[in-house]
Amino acid sequence: MACLIGIDIGTTNCKAAAYTEDGMFKAVASRPTVTHYLENNWAEFDPGQIWDAVQDILRDITRQLGGEKIDGIAVASMGAAGVLLNENDEWIHRSIAWFDTRTEGIAAEWREDFGSEEVFSISGFVPNPMAGITKVQWIRRQKPELFKGVKRWVSMQDYIVYRLTGEAVVDLSVACRTMAVDLKERCWSDKILDHAQIPREICSTIKRSGELAGTVTSHSAGLTGVEAGTPVFAGGMDYVCGAFACGLTQSGQVLSAIGTSEQVLMVVDEPANDVKHIDTNFTCVNYVVDDKYYIAGQVISSGVILDWFRTEMTKEDLTTLLDEAEKSPLGAKGAILLPHFRGKYAPGADPLSKGALIGLTTSHTRGDLARAIIEGLCYESTTIIEGIQKIVDYEIETVNVVGGATKSPFWMQIKADILGKPVVCLNVPEAVTLGAAMLAGLGAGIYKDPEDAVRQTRRDDTVYLPDSVRHEAYRTMFENVYENVYPALQGIHHKIDALIKKEEK
Description:
Blueprint: E1 4-9, E2 13-19, E3 25-32, E4 36-37, E5 43-45, H1 47-65, E6 72-77, E7 82-86, E8 95-96, H2 104-123, H3 132-142, H4 144-147, E9 150-155, H5 156-165, E10 169-171, H6 172-175, E11 181-182, E12 187-188, H7 190-196, E13 205-207, E14 212-215, H8 218-224, E15 231-237, H9 238-245, E16 254-258, E17 262-268, E18 283-286, E19 293-299, H10 303-314, H11 318-327, E20 336-338, E21 356-358, H12 366-392, E22 399-403, H13 409-419, E23 423-426, H14 431-444, H15 450-457, E24 461-464, H16 468-504
Parallel strand pairs: 1-6, 6-15, 10-13, 16-22, 22-23
Antiparallel strand pairs: 1-2, 2-3, 4-5, 5-8, 7-9, 11-12, 14-15, 16-17, 17-19, 18-19, 20-21, 23-24
Helix pairs in contact: 1-5, 9-14, 10-12, 11-12, 12-13, 13-16
């Protein structure tokens, strides 16, 4: 049996798992990803801590494998969290987190100076503060002298690949999250890089997912326990690898990956970067197999809101909160959550939007509020799914779901009832690491093609069908209340942000 390792550099944890070719676990290890929070909710990752965590989990994996030969490794990672390295391979600034919106001013400059339509037509991106190139520009402005000595600009994926192999290689699905890739030509855009004053030579070599990036060096072998010469293949964006592991290889298939954020994507054959869609802020970028693309939006704050409510507000365990939420009536007695705790991404970007719980009375219990949180998250993802439907101009039939939320039948039934569509919960315990391992298997020749990889690793699933009566009730609340909450609060939230910035000065 083959042995394939997928590594997932995530916002919450760094994980690695070893699999057989039929997708069965051989070993698994995890370490927390440390997020350093600064003023005004800025957030950063220490690249050294990330690399230390990867060394730890690989040593753990190799101990569990007991010297077994590893046929291939691939790395999946969060997007937009870039690392700038000098000639000594030392980082010059901590990596700015993908959800950090400090670069909104730089994104605005792109929209005004270069032109939103031009950026969108090249990269599939509407300029926004999550684009990796804005993070690099921010660091350059803060540390101009150090930036002159930058040898490499790597995303978190290629940073780990570089540490393992000495080769700076990034796959298209991660590279395109920088906003600096030509979507159709599948290469770095000289036009965008030149405007940003970023030398092309510091960018990683772009390869398709599953292509050989390099082999583990003797130095890294000593640090990780992985045998020198082990092949490392280009992986992909974390939730996009997860989509592949869930069987998404055909156009029209949709996945909702619920974790810290909720990522929603649809696989398509051609990029949907017509400027008529620009105001939606949906991205249409490169997928990990068969040179396909995907349309994506996200609820920036998803599981993190429940975690915040649990730790900061209730000091209660999640199981208890979900049990109490299930006892609350449909609609949570009129309590409504707007889940923009880290801003709004799509449809229509608004990084200054904020979270809100409205409709509260003294009759509300914490169970009502927990239900309102879940319903609010499902409402918000519905706006994304329906927004994608408008772009592709056909009805999405089924939504596949992965992530921790799938462990709650209550949550998934609400999702189906609000969407009015079947929700298929896929039994893929570690979708991201499995997807990365499958890409390594493609590169190593273990699988004939992506469909063969999916066939060999496919798991059982659980289907939640929408209840027509509950869907009608939710639809009434969605159209009459929820869709009006953000427009009603938008101006207030912008004023709050301005006041906060004024006080900080």
